[in-house]
Amino acid sequence: MENTKLNRGAAVIDRILRILQGFAIAGVIVSVIFIPLTLILKEKIIADASGLRLGAVTLKLAGDMSGWLDFPRVRTAIVCSLICMAVAAAAVWYCLRVLRSVLRPMKDGSPFTAGISAKIRKLAWTVLAGGGLVEIGSVVSSVLETRAYHLDRLLNMDLISSVTFNWTISLWFVAAALILFFLSFIFRYGEELQREADETL
User: Fold this and answer.
1) Total structural domains within the chain
2) Which stretches of the chain drop beneath a pLDDT of 50?
């Protein structure tokens, strides 16, 4: 009975992961298509970028944007963001693929088949590398976008002594990778117990 529940649960999760893989592939394709479009359309892609957000405040700017906006830098920031999206979607697709390969033996009722712990470790390394690349790319994109605005032309510099930018990197991917590494050790122990049980039988 328990094996039947495990089989059914793993099969349902596998179907959901397959659908999510489709969305991840679509994310990669859309991001990759928009990268050359951004380079081809140049200033047209950011023609409506007349707003500057400062925390909870958004400034609506008027007049000719060329006076206060560096178009090439904004374009580079957009391309960098699209690359981050493509990398993130590709990493998600690969993680889902590895998860589905982990679920495959569970559908047959054997969760501790040899090699599962190695796949979970592979998943952890993917999360660590992919998450790191996305966070770094996100910060680079934010830096480029912020520096694209000529603040000395937008703000009354007689009243402002200095402008400081604060960029932060989230370390969610490190925590997620550590949890996955821990799970891989648990599964490796389970694999050893399963191997000993099979040898005993």
Assistant:
1) 1
2) 1
